[in-house]
Amino acid sequence: MGRWNPDARGRLERAALELFAERGFAETTVPQIAKKAGLTTRTFFRYFADKREVLFSGEDDMREQMAAIIRDAPPDLSPIQLIEYALEAASTTIFEPRRDAMRDWRAVVASDEGLRERALRKEQLSTESTIAALGERGVDARTAELMARLATLALQSAVTHWIEDAASPDAASPDAAGADRAAPAAQDKPLVVFVHESLDRMRAIVSGQPL
Amino acid sequence: MGRWNPDARGRLERAALELFAERGFAETTVPQIAKKAGLTTRTFFRYFADKREVLFSGEDDMREQMAAIIRDAPPDLSPIQLIEYALEAASTTIFEPRRDAMRDWRAVVASDEGLRERALRKEQLSTESTIAALGERGVDARTAELMARLATLALQSAVTHWIEDAASPDAASPDAAGADRAAPAAQDKPLVVFVHESLDRMRAIVSGQPL
Asked: Where are the alpha helices (DSSP H) in A5-47?
C-alpha cells in the first residue's frame, strides 16, 4: 500500500463507526479499525489522538459548514427567517445524506457515559461557533445566543424524530426490522419537514397557542 | 470532634467551592477541602467519590426540587403558563438565594474541560428529569421535550445575565470590582425579571416579531 491513502480519514471514520455499532465501543481496538479501513495503526494515529476522537472529527467539519451557511446567508433576513434559512440549508447539504451514519453515531454515543459527555461538549462548541457567526452579521450577543440555542434545539428535536421515523418498522410489515436499513423507503419524510414541525411546535409553546 | 457532623455535606461543598475558586480546581486536594470544612478526609469520602463530584451533588437536589415544582403545579396550566410557573418558583426558591455560589461554581466549571463536560451532562439529566415530570402530568413526549428544553434555555440565559448584572462593577464607582461581592446591592434585579426577559425574547424570535 502506498503512502498516500485517498480519503484515509473518511475510511477510518466509517470503519470505526461500523465496528463500534457492531461490537460496542469498549470492545473495539484501534488496530481493528485500521485493519477494517485497509490502513495501518500508524496511519490511524496520524489523524486521531484515540478511538474516541474518531467519532467527533466529523463534527468539526459540520460546525464549519454551519458557520459558513450563516455567514453567506442573505443579509436582510429577520432572526426567525435566518434560523429557517440556516436549518433548511444544513438539513439538505449536511444532514440529509448522513441519516444512517447519524443513527449509528447516536446509538454508539448513547452507549457510553464518556462519549455522551464529549458529545454534549461538542454540541456546545457548535452552538458557540453559531453564536460567533451571528455576531459577525451584527446580531447582538444576547439575541445571538438565544437564536443559536433555539436553532440547535429545533434541529436536535427534528433529527431525533427523523431518525426514529425512518428506524420504526412499518406496521404493515412486521419483518421490516430485518430489512436493509441502508435503503430508505421512498415515502420517508425529509429532515426539513421535521425542522418546520419543531419550529411550529416551539412557536406554539412560547406563544401560548394550542398545540 | 464527635462522629455526628451536622450538615457535613454542605460544609464540604462550601469549602470545596471556596478553595476551587481561590486556588484552582487542579491545585486543590481533598485533604485541604476536608481541613477547611473542619472534617476528616474519611468523612469527605463518605459523601463524595472524588473532588469532582463535590461540585455536582447539589445539582441532584436541584433536579429533584424542579421535578417536585412541576408535579405540584396547578393542573390546568397551558404549556407556556406551566413553564412560567415552574421557572418563577425555581427562581425564587432554588436559585435566588444561591447567586454568589452559582457565580463561583460557573467560574470553576468553566476553568476545566472535564468539568465542563460533566456539567453539560448533569444539565441534560436535569432536562430529562423535567421531561419525565411533564410526562407524569400527561404532556405528550415531543411537547414535553421541547417544553423542558425551552425552559432550560430560558433559565440558563436568565441566570447568565443575572450573574453578569450583579458581577459588573457600577460605572460610577470604578473601585467596585474590589468591593465585597457577597453583599448584593439593593437595586439588583431579581432572577425572575431576567427569566421573563428571556422568555419574551424567545417569543419575539420564534414569532418573527421585532426584538
From this structure: 8-23, 30-36, 41-47
Task: Inform me whether the C-beta atom of residue B138 falls under 8 Å from chain A C-beta atoms.
Answer: no
Can you tell me the distance from the alpha carbon of A122 to that of B26, in angstroms, rounded to the nearest whole number?
A: 23
What is the pTM (predicted TM-score) of this model?
Answer: 0.83
User: Touching check for A98 and chain B: CB below 8 Å?
Assistant: no
Give the ranges where chain B is alpha helix by DSSP (H).
Answer: 8-23, 30-36, 41-47, 57-71, 79-90, 99-110, 113-136, 141-167, 191-207
Average pLDDT score over chain B = 88
B61 vs chain A: nearest CA distance in angstroms?
20
**What ipTM does this complex have?**
0.80
Partners of residue A117 in chain B, C-beta under 8 Å: 117-118, 120-121
* Res B146 pLDDT > 90: yes
CA–CA dist A149, A124 (Å, integer): 9
Query: Which of A5, A19, A59, A124 is closest to B113 using CA atoms?
Result: A124
